[in-house]
Amino acid sequence: MADIERESVEYDVVIVGAGPSGLSAAIRLKQLDPDLSVVVLEKGSEVGAHILSGAVLDPAGLDALIPDWKAKGAPVTVPVREDNFYMLGEAGGIRLPNILMPPLMNNHGNYIVSMGNVCRWLAEQAEGLGVEIFPGMACSELVYADDGSVKGVVAGVFGLNADGTPSDGFEPGMELHGKYVFLGEGVRGSLTKEVISKFGLSEGKEPQKFGLGMKEIWEIDPAKHREGTVTHTMGWPLGNNAGGGSFVYHLDNNQVYVGFVVHLNYENPHLYPYMEFQRFKHHPMIAELLKGGKRVAYGARAISEGGYQSMPNPVAPGVAILGCGVGLVNVPRIKGNHNAMLSGIAAAEAAHSAIKAGRSSDRLEDYATALTDGPIGKDLKRVRNVKPLWSKFGLLGGLSFGGLDMWVANLTGLNLFGTMRHGKTDAAATGKAKDFAPIDYPKPDGVLSFDRLTNVSFSMTNHEESQPAHLRLADASVPISINLPEYAEPAQRYCPAGVYEVVEEAGKDARFVINFQNCVHCKTCDIKDPSQNITWVTPQGGDGPNYPNM
Ligand SMILES: Cc1cc2nc3c(=O)[nH]c(=O)nc-3n(C[C@H](O)[C@H](O)[C@H](O)COP(=O)(O)OP(=O)(O)OC[C@H]3O[C@@H](n4cnc5c(N)ncnc54)[C@H](O)[C@@H]3O)c2cc1C
Fold this sequence. Notes:
Blueprint: E1 7-16, H1 20-32, E2 38-42, E3 56-57, H2 60-65, E4 78-79, E5 82-88, E6 93-95, E7 111-112, H3 115-128, E8 132-135, E9 139-144, E10 150-155, E11 158-160, E12 166-171, E13 174-183, H4 190-198, E14 210-219, E15 229-235, E16 244-250, E17 255-263, H5 273-280, H6 284-290, E18 294-304, E19 315-316, E20 319-321, H7 337-356, H8 365-373, H9 375-381, H10 386-412, H11 452-457, E21 471-473, H12 478-487, H13 491-494, E22 500-503, E23 511-514, H14 524-528, E24 534-536
Bound molecules: flavin-adenine dinucleotide (FAD).
């Protein structure tokens, strides 16, 4: 659509994504200089609609951004009161004593929050400072200057026909130009992916690694609700089939977040992450908690797991990548929100100094240095071997060696294993179907466990059907000619929203169907497709899930 004429608007800083990283950057810029013009563009129908996190929040980011957040009424009101860690077998579990856990795993001082609500509140704070925030505006393209630097984004394209041609209601959107563009798209952002590739920002780094996180909100029997309780489990049902585990967080109002993460470097292409999650809820410990309750929301999102050694260079001319676009999750703590916020603050401080010095459209090197040498780098560096140790030695070996490495790092500041490599991408880790046994999953009972499409309706996802599919195949023949015979087309199973189907009818050739309307924007297909044939691009603004208090 290069020949389309668009209006353009100039800002000091253009921010893509109203997640914790983007909103923190916007707030810090205005705190530093109220005269800076700052805009935040969000593809969700409202701020928070696409936010999915656990979430136990380490308030380090919030403390740095808005020290009087309590007085200002932040929706951060449920302190963690109890921390449990279980190794599960099919019928029972062993509670690991908290004393064995490295101190960084302790949740004392943290809060159970809805990150969606925290982002809604951050957006109010930002608007109060004069930041312009436009929800329902998907950023679909980057705009480059003649010298190759990133100069802005295209946002707000609506009304394309399924074949990509303009319909009668076509709106071309507009160009938003900035002295600097911040990409706060979160994990596997579509514009972020383009910038990393175009500027070679991951050269010399380990591949980024990911997990798939699925989450339900349950309202449970008040007699069983223990506000402030945090429980993590490992072991059953995944065993050694894949890395991952669960989280169960008791927030307020008798609600519980029940979530499950499956590391996407699993080999067996028959594995069905969504069904592992559903099966998990039948464990006696979880079933007892949920019995008599009801599931009120469902969603899914990829989570970055590569850590310190996978962080791309976060800057290129005119652009800086924030938060989980860089992959700032501390894997053993399953926490990235504090680092996302700290990264937004650091990028804002670098851009403010640069603009004050009369600079624009260059590399914000101070931001890159702040990420690796500041509190974020420190947080991620000491846990950098946990993920590769788990990948190499499986659950028990990974847990033992990873725990030891974290303890030694905690006591001496050194890691026993140096810096371990991840090696393969998650897509390349996928094995051939013939080398693995299919897994027999029990049928959901409709009480504790649900079929995928029923659950997707609880994400309130919605996409205008007449637009082009936002899940693009580089080669339309690959799913049936390569992925089906070689990998039993795993897209049918790894997608937590049932977007992909192989339809096999008697007497007809098998067909690959993409039900893009179901997509919850988790990005797993873009990550895990073994042929790397699927690209997730943003659909038009306002589409996608409409999460309540995820
Ligand atoms: C299941 C799960 C559990 C987790 N648990 C925890 C936890 O307990 N504690 C913790 O601290 N962290 C947790 N995390 C990690 C945490 O969610 C991330 O670190 C954090 O969300 C990263 O923030 P971000 O601002 O980088 O991106 P995001 O939070 O992903 O926000 C990105 C925003 O940008 C928008 N966007 C993306 N692309 C575009 C575009 N092209 N145009 C316009 N808008 C766009 C999105 O709609 C979204 O609103 C968890 C993650 C998952 C998946």
